[in-house]
Amino acid sequence: MSADAVHEDLLEEEDDLAMPRKKRDDEEMDITPMIDITFLLLIFFVVASKMDPTKIGTIPSADHGLAVSADDSAIIFVDPGAGDEVILKKRDGSEFSRDEATQSTEIIEYITSELEKSIGKNKNQVMLLGDANVKVGKVTRIQQIIGDAFEDIESTYIAVKEE
């Protein structure tokens, strides 16, 4: 056999082994790899992110905050207690109950009485004066109690310390 014949036989064998290529339209684009990467990134960020709603948040200092009058607000003092507990106090210094169910009722009664005292004063807001060591979830729970019970309250303010 000549060299040309051997070369032709090899080319025929390669053609038999090669997979036929599917011709694509120029307009069609395969986005499967992009979808795979998107899901891999999504899974990575879900697994790598840390979601802890009880984590202590720091309250920023107020540079140019809005001045809110304490006389025009129902005030609740939020102090840190033992562990995850918070101690809630009224304007006169008396404490709310430590039981959360009873505390909810007392908060609603207290704010109702504060709003009734100020019929001519236009008191329609609540101010929460807290400590930096109080967990954000505890303050949010108090705001939710107030928001669910009083739809007519204009604003709930969280006091920040001005430096």
Automatic annotation (TrEMBL):
The chain crosses the membrane at residues 31-48. It is a single-pass membrane protein; Single-pass type II membrane protein. The keyword Membrane applies. Its main location: membrane. It comes from the Bacteria. It is found in: Cell membrane. Residues 1-25 are annotated as: Disordered. Keywords: Cell membrane, Membrane, Protein transport, Transmembrane, Transmembrane helix, Transport. Belongs to the ExbD/TolR family. This is Biopolymer transport protein ExbD/TolR. The lineage of its organism: Bacteria, Pseudomonadati, Planctomycetota, Planctomycetia, Pirellulales.
